[in-house]
Amino acid sequence: EAQVTQNPRYLITVTGKKLTVTCSQNMNHEYMSWYRQDPGLGLRQIYYSMNVEVTDKGDVPEGYKVSRKEKRNFPLILESPSPNQTSLYFCASSFLGAYEQYFGPGTRLTVT
Amino acid sequence: AQSVAQPEDQVNVAEGNPLTVKCTYSVSGNPYLFWYVQYPNRGLQFLLKYITGDNLVKGSYGFEAEFNKSQTSFHLKKPSALVSDSALYFCAVRDGDSNYQLIWGAGTKLIIKP
How far is CA A73 from the centre of its chain? Predict the structure, then answer.
């Protein structure tokens, strides 16, 4: 089944404790992206990647890191999480071009 | 700068009635327009898109949207609403002449009452 998977689905952590949210897709998509969703703000892009070893900042990259060592994986790293990073995070992927994005199920992160 | 506006936080419609969820956009180049739906505790699902061609595009679950270049709008419509259509709907736009970044509206909560 074609899908984007994210892990974990739910995470509660404390300020400053490094964490990684994994994202994997099995559709051979070139483009992958991370978003955060906050009430009333829609989706805001954190980072995106157009191919292996090619990543770029989105609208809200501060406090986040990503890597793209393999085409299928695009992990999101929070080196020192803070409470303002409490949010719902989505990973998405697509082919390059005028194609729709496929979304993972989301990761709800709470930083206390 | 690119932007998307969904002017209604919430739309209430009786089951069986037609529904419209509004979206207006601003891009400097050719607009690529998308609608997505989010059901509770789920990721976003693609509904339909406009890239070029006919202004009326049809998508999943009986939804359609009309591209209006002069009004810079891309409203989502359905002739007869179902209770199961209740969800959060997002409009998104990309500048087709430049990059792959999607700009998203804030979302509209659609409530269909029996």
Answer: 10
Closest residue on chain A to B51 (Cα): A98
Contact at CB, B100 and A103, closer than 8 angstroms = no
Sign (positive or negative) of CA dihedral A51, A98, A100, A39: positive
Taking the CA atoms of residue B109, residue A93, residue B52 and residue B65 in that order, the dihedral angle to the nearest 10 degrees is -20
What's the rounded mean pLDDT across residues A61-70?
Answer: 97
Whether A31 contacts A93, CB under 8 Å: yes
Q: What are phi and psi of A83, to 5 degrees?
A: -55, -30
Bridge partner list, B67: B74
* pLDDT for residue A79: 95
Q: What is the pLDDT of residue B42?
A: 82
Summarize pLDDT for B70-96 with one digit per residue, the tens. Answer: 999 999 999 999 999 999 999 999 887
Contact B42 A50 (CB under 8 A): no
Cβ partners under 8 Å of residue A1, min gap 6: none
